[in-house]
């Protein structure tokens, strides 16, 4: 899917490959549950969550993996030990197998993001 032209997150999920749709839907549910006060939008062709007009979280179905974008360096730094064993780019976690997504870690990252405002990178 790389970059979707979906108009909203419902359409984005409907267009996702069936093998990944459940994991993507679960990521969305966690974001909506934990990121109170954030606005769900489509940005750069993927679901994103903004606070005061600034994106702090996003996720995407990429060709080889599912990406979870953590756009706050302060949160990434606070979780450095737990993130060390994961495939991590500058600002995203890459999950090559949907069934191996660490949803507990994702929930903790979302809670830390929601707890205090910060500056996205």
Description:
- This is Iron chaperone.
- It holds the Pfam family DUF1801.
- The protein contains five helices and five strands.
- It has a five-stranded antiparallel β-sheet with strand order 1-2-3-4-5.
- A hairpin with a 4-residue loop joins strand 3 and strand 4.
Give the gist of this structure.
Helix content is 39%, strand content 23%. It is an alpha+beta fold and 121 residues long. It starts with 8 loop residues before the first helix and ends in a 6-residue tail after the last helix.
Total strand segments: 5
One letter per element, helices H and strands E, the order comes to: HHEEEEHHEH
Judged by helices, strands and strand pairing, the structural class is alpha+beta
Radius of gyration computed on alpha carbons? 13 Å
Helix content: 25-40%
N- to C-terminal distance: 24 Å
- Spatial order of the strands in the main sheet? 1-2-3-4-5
Total helical segments: 5
What coarse outline follows from CA principal-axis ratios?
globular
- Residue windows where pLDDT falls under 50 for at least 5 positions: none
Mean pLDDT: 93
Largest sheet: 5 strands, antiparallel
The percent range for strand residues is 15-25%
Pfam families: DUF1801
Protein name: Iron chaperone
InterPro entries: YdhG-like
Domain YdhG-like: 20-112
Comma- or semicolon-separated keywords:
121 residues, alpha+beta, five-stranded antiparallel sheet, 39% helix
Write the layout of secondary structure elements.
Blueprint lengths: L8 H7 L2 H17 L4 E5 L2 E6 L2 E8 L4 E5 L2 H6 L1 H4 L8 E4 L7 H13 L6
Antiparallel strand pairs: 1-2, 2-3, 3-4, 4-5
Helix pairs in contact: 2-5
